[in-house]
Design a protein that fits this description.
Elements lengths: L6 E3 L2 E3 L3 E3 L21 E3 L16 E4 L2 E4 L8 H15 L4 E6 L4 H11 L5 E7 L16 H14 L4 E5 L6 H11 L3 E4 L3 E4 L13 E5 L4 H14 L4 E5 L5 H10 L3 E4 L1 H5 L3 H12 L1
Parallel strand pairs: 3-4, 3-14, 4-7, 7-8, 8-9, 9-10, 10-13, 13-14
Antiparallel strand pairs: 1-2, 5-6, 6-12, 11-12
Helix pairs in contact: 2-3, 3-4, 4-5, 5-6, 6-8
Length: about 290
Amino acid sequence: MARSLARDILGIHFQNPVLVAAGTAGFGRELAGVMDMEKLGGLVTKAVSAEPRAGNPSPRVAEFPGGMLNSVGLANPGLRHVLADELPWLAANVQAARVLVNVVGFTEEEYATVIEGLEAAPGISAYEINLSCPNTSRGGIEFGADPDAVTRLITRCRGITRRPIFAKLSPVLPDIPAMALVARDAGADGVSLINTLPGYLADDAARPRLGQGNGGVSGPALLPIGVLATRRVHERLPDLAIIGVGGIRSAEDARQYLDAGAGLVAIGTAALADPHLPARVVRDLENHG
């Protein structure tokens, strides 16, 4: 008999712990009829910024044996379009799976603008704050690399919303548990571990394989890095909610994160290659634990 995977995390009821990671299922509409989202625990939407973003020049994706290098550049239709078209579609078509909205910005004000705009939208269970964006008002350093910036940003977001906030952290931080503590003390309810690693690949002519040059590494190579980050944060902050993300291709990979202390897991690159995989992971977890 299949066992129940249902769980309540931060006051949100998830029918199972399996989510689709930000940027890999768009706003749900893109995979309608291909992926059965109603069998999942939830969906983390594509990034939402205050204004539309065209993203980085192509090519944006380069595969390699350990996964994928990507540089989409946070391309998205912007807050106004998301409110008018994407979120209403999600609210009408996705009931069982929970919706988490990934929020991006290049100033603290932009993050606040996005969350303020989203507050009245129905069907949103939580926000995932992408801290890997460069802070343009402070020389381009990523928000997540600066504890003071994380404190200001999360504190500001916390003052706007009562919805749960997950801070998405970079794997290149020298002390991920310390930054998780900073985010928690500023008002974050949880963390997403981990974001992509920076990387670069060249073609046979020594030219960059991505139009932007460098990009973010995702896929199987991230699995042990994400599991270690999850374990370290959970050991230091056992009551902090964790979404484990990076390199998951099977129920066994998902169990690695769950055993390390994650309450939820998010599948990204593997779902791009096989949109049916997240539902199979749910089924395998139900059948085999």
